[in-house]
Amino acid sequence: MVPAPAEPAAQRLKASAFWDAEADDALVCLAVRDETHDVKTFVLAPRTPRLFAYAPGQFLTFSFEIGGETIHRCYTISSSPTRPHTVSFTVKRVAGGPVSNWLHDTLKVGDTVRALGPMGDFTCFQNPARKYLLLSGGSGVTPMMSMARTFHDLGEARDVAFVHSARSPADIVFRGELETMARLDPAFRFHAVCEADSAGEIWNGPKGRLSLDILQAAVPDFREREVFVCGPKPYMDAVKAMLKDAGFDMARHHEESFDFGALPEAEKEAAEQAEQVLDAAPASTVRVFRVEFAKTRRVLECPENETVLDAARKAGIRLPSSCAKGLCGTCKSKVTAGTVSMTHAGGIRQREIDAGMALLCCSKPTSDLVVER
Q: What is the spatial distance between Cα 11 and Cα 7, in angstroms, rounded to a whole number?
């Protein structure tokens, strides 16, 4: 009797080696799941069965081909490393957002995307504690979900309180799963805070925005916990101020954000540092190079001790960027002429460097440059 051919899922379960983006960065979309009316989860796996290894809270940098252009975006992994055969990321549709709308409208099962990573140090694995508090707003739920799923799967005796802020009950991402986890595990508590009712549900829980009163009612011992925060920058700023005012030990406060609509604090700090270095150096010792952006035909002058990204910011030229530390790969660009000195933190592959690519956030010119942007 001839045995039936193995199913694709069974083939994937036989994977023994770990995924290596340097060897093959292509990931195939296995499933697309609706989480809410404007949030989808995309489940990915390598073309050749491999296992994923990452820490909950880390992110991947994706390269999407949209309208004939390669666009880089960072998305936090929402799945758990305890289920290593696939990896998932969850995206909210943003009005006018070129990537989020393309993902929602175009990416389908069987399509291939490219990714680099995992990266990032926003993870509970680097900050072990007996008690955790996970605070998220909107799309900031994704790294918290990865951490919550990991603790749940491991069955560890960790006291975890998860407080999520949403616009309405209809906007609570992963609501059903989180409520089930709370029902099954007495050490896990989930609380949602909604700004308003939704069309199909009157919200009977805490209403408005997260406040100290709401937090104390939900998690009276929050001062004893390791706190992780993720969400839009205004949300994180408000949470940080609230915790400081409440006397929380901010050494146990950790935050993460990918806000592509605003200038991240890391970039502001990098720009300020670059200005200080430039101001401190004698003018006669600093060489200045010409940097031309081929597509936009913009030209600027960049000192040799300043990154191309910092010089562009000062010149009023907006370039895609996020971490400003050579980690995420968002600012990756091709240098078609000239040379740079680049010290990165893993956001670019050696084969990309060999092909003339550079991370503008950590690249300083050593000659005149032409950048393909």
A: 6
152 within 8 A of 188, measured Cβ to Cβ? yes
Task: Give dist(CA 258, CA 313) in Å, integer.
Answer: 18
Q: How far apart are the first and last CA of the chain?
A: 61
Residue 220 backbone class (left: φ over 0; alpha: ψ -120 to 50; beta: rest) = alpha
Question: Omega before 118 cis (within 30°)?
Answer: yes
CA separation for the pair 328, 354 (Å, rounded): 19
- Count of C-beta atoms within a 10 Å radius of residue 250: 11
Enumerate the β-bridge partners of residue 230: 136, 256
Residue ranges for the chain with pLDDT beneath 70? 1-13, 15-16, 157, 257-284
List, for residues 310-327, the tens digit of each pLDDT value: 999 888 888 888 777 788
Nearest to 35 by CA among 154, 187, 164: 164
Under DSSP, the state recorded for 199 is T
* pTM exceeding the 0.70 threshold for the entire prediction: yes
Strands 288-293 and 369-371: parallel
CA-nearest of 303, 307, 315 to 331 is: 307
Q: Residue 176 carries which side chain, given as an amino acid letter? A: G
Q: What is the pLDDT of residues 227-264, one digit of tens each?
A: 999 999 999 999 999 999 999 999 999 998 654 333 33
In angstroms, the CA 46 to CA 28 distance is: 6
- Is 252 exposed, middle or buried (CB count within 10 Å of its CB: 0-12, 13-18, 19+)? middle
CA dist., res. 43 & res. 27, Å (int): 9
Q: Report CA-CA distances (Å) from 103 to 116, 165, 262.
A: 18, 24, 21
Q: How far apart are CA 230 and CA 133, in angstroms?
A: 12
Strands 357-359 and 332-337: antiparallel
The token pair at 151 is 């603790």
Which value, in Å, is the radius of gyration of the alpha carbons in the chain?
A: 22
